[in-house]
Amino acid sequence: MLTDVEGLYANCPHSTEVIERLTADALDGLLPGLASGMLPKMEGCLRAVRGGVRRAHVLEGRVPHAVLRTVLDETCPGTTMVPDTVPKRDTSTA
């Protein structure tokens, strides 16, 4: 998701601290207190990670190349949501 703010703020509007990363359960707990503009973005991210997506991002679209930076550098100018538990990869050989 691209937006015109830095990401999801911790304790908005009382703080400008951006939450860089949070789990689905943590996000679920924050949903009732979110403002109307951020609520649909966060609900979409929550549905995505609970539906099997490994991570979802809310990116500050004003940052040049925000999407490219997130994909190539894995640095996110915004907030990243991840599932509560990350499935372990099978590293055994067949």
TrEMBL record:
<feature type="domain" description="Aspartate/glutamate/uridylate kinase">
    <location>
        <begin position="2"/>
        <end position="59"/>
    </location>
</feature>
<protein>
    <recommendedName>
        <fullName>Aspartate/glutamate/uridylate kinase domain-containing protein</fullName>
    </recommendedName>
</protein>
<dbReference type="InterPro" id="IPR036393">
    <property type="entry name" value="AceGlu_kinase-like_sf"/>
</dbReference>
<dbReference type="InterPro" id="IPR001048">
    <property type="entry name" value="Asp/Glu/Uridylate_kinase"/>
</dbReference>
<dbReference type="Pfam" id="PF00696">
    <property type="entry name" value="AA_kinase"/>
</dbReference>
